[in-house]
Amino acid sequence: MQQFRVSLSIPSFFATTPRMTASGTTTLFCAGLLLLGAVFSEGRAASASPATAQSAVKKLPNLRVNVYFEKVDEKGMVILKYGSVFLTTKLYGIRLRSGSAGVLSLVLPSGVLLQAEVIEKGEIQSVVLWKGNKNLNEELLIQGVAEGVH
Predict the structure, then answer these.
(1) Is residue 5 situated within a structural domain?
(2) Helix (H) or strand (E) holding 51
(3) Residue 45 and residue 129: Cα distance in Å, rounded?
(4) CA distance linking residue 82 with residue 58, whole number of Å
(5) Does residue 112 fall inside a structural domain?
(6) 125 neighbors 89 (Cβ within 8 angstroms)
(7) 48 CB-contact burial (10 Å; exposed 0-12 / middle 13-18 / buried 19+)
(8) Distance between CA 134 and CA 53 in Å, rounded?
(9) For the purposes of burial, counting CB atoms within 10 Å of the CB of 142, is it exposed (0-12), middle (13-18) or buried (19 or more)?
C-alpha cells in the first residue's frame, strides 16, 4: 500500500512545473486535488434543489439546552432559568393540573438542572424537559400531575 503525504506551500501552488518534495509527492498533485474538491463541492451545492434543502433542514434535531427549573406560575407556565435569563415556557403535549404543586415539587424541585428540548418555537416555546435520558413530560403524566393535550 502506497502512502501519500500532502504538503502544499503557497508559491508552489501556482507553479507550472511539478516539484518533488522529500516524501516523493508533488505539490501540483495536491493542488489538483484541492481544485477538484472545490469544483465538486460547488457543483453539488448548485445542483441541490430547494426541496432538498428544506428536507435537510427538517431533519435537524431539536435544540436542547441546559436549564434550571425555577417554578410554575399561576397560569401553568413553566419558568426556566438559562444563565441569568428567566424563560417562560409551556410543556409540550401536556397541561399541568391545578392543585398539583405538592406532587410537582417532588418531581421537579426548584433549582434542579435539566435539559429543555425546544419542540415548538414562538413567543412562548413548547419544551420537553429531560433529566438524563428520562422524559419528564411523560413522567408528569404517569404521576397524574399533568393531563395530555392534543
Answers:
(1) no
(2) helix 50-58
(3) 37
(4) 25
(5) yes
(6) yes
(7) exposed
(8) 32
(9) exposed
**Which secondary structure element, helix H or strand E, spans residue 129, and what is its range?**
strand 126-131
Per-residue pLDDT of the chain (150 residues; tens, 9 = 90+): 555 454 444 343 334 444 444 444 444 333 333 333 333 333 444 444 445 445 444 556 788 999 999 998 888 889 999 999 999 999 999 998 877 767 777 778 899 999 999 999 989 999 999 999 999 999 999 988 888 987
Q: Say if CB 141 and CB 97 are below 8 A apart.
A: no
Query: What's the structural domain count of the chain?
Result: 2
Question: What is the reported pTM?
Answer: 0.58
Domain span including residue 93: 64-148
